[in-house]
Design brief:
The protein is mainly α. It is about 95% helix and about 0% strand. It is rod-shaped and about 40 Å long.
Length: about 30
Amino acid sequence: MTFLNWLWRRDVEFFLAAAAVVLLATCGGC
């Protein structure tokens, strides 16, 4: 559980950045 927590905390920023990129790409394709 601790390892998963650490991994989640570490991937949160990357996930947010990926979501922002996807949103920008989708909006650009509008």
